[in-house]
Amino acid sequence: MASPAKPPARPYKRGAVALGSLIPEAVAPILSQRGFASTAILTEWREIVGPHLAQWTNPIEIRWPRRPHEGAEPAKTLARPSRTKTDNATRATLVIGCASAFALDIQMATPAIIEAVNRRLGYGCIGSIQILQGPRKAPVAPPASRKVDPTLVKTVEGTLGDIENAELRQALATLGAEIAARSPQRRANKP
Predict the structure, then answer these.
(1) Is there a single domain that holds both residue 43 and residue 113?
(2) pLDDT(111) > 90
(3) So what's the pLDDT on residue 83?
(4) What is the pLDDT of residues 64-97, one digit of tens each?
(5) Is-above-0.70 flag for pTM?
(6) In sequence order, which residues have a C-beta less than 8 Å from that of residue 148 and are 6 or more positions away?
(7) What's the structural domain count of the chain?
(8) Quick check: is 18 in a domain?
(9) Per-residue confidence at 3, pLDDT binned at 50, 70, 90?
(10) CB half-sphere exposure, 164, CA atoms < 13 A
(11) Do 40 and 107 fall within a single domain?
(12) What CATH number does residue 38 fall under?
């Protein structure tokens, strides 16, 4: 006789599910291998270190210290002082990858980065930073926006007559004109 099927970890729902609600569950095993308990440091890195350093650095992992006597029976000795878990515990090391040219900037900002990470996490778990230098690609500048044909903007704006807010109507008209300019039919009709 076959054993009954295991129920799914997440009950099935009808309809669409937001992708953002599935991501934490999907990346949790990888994050735990790298020492991260949550995605807070990864997703909020730009706010932690600032935009200048964020484009040249990234957090790689958190290395937690080993606790040698945890879980094992201590050897009996005559005059051994008692220790608590807080005495044995030490802080973790945050490993940051960066371009070699910015390693000194990271080193100078280490106390501020440690403080910002600990503040973001809500407790003082990070005690030091290790810098891994290596080649990194230069950050890619966002592409310059293309100029849209003003007559096309006016044409699209004419179809948006029921929108009262002028700024919103203008923004939607510009967006619509950019979409229309990218359409294959419009490109085929262009001389």
Answers:
(1) yes
(2) yes
(3) 40
(4) 887 666 555 544 444 444 444 443 357 888 899 9
(5) no
(6) 174, 177, 178, 181
(7) 2
(8) no
(9) low
(10) 0
(11) yes
(12) 3.30.300
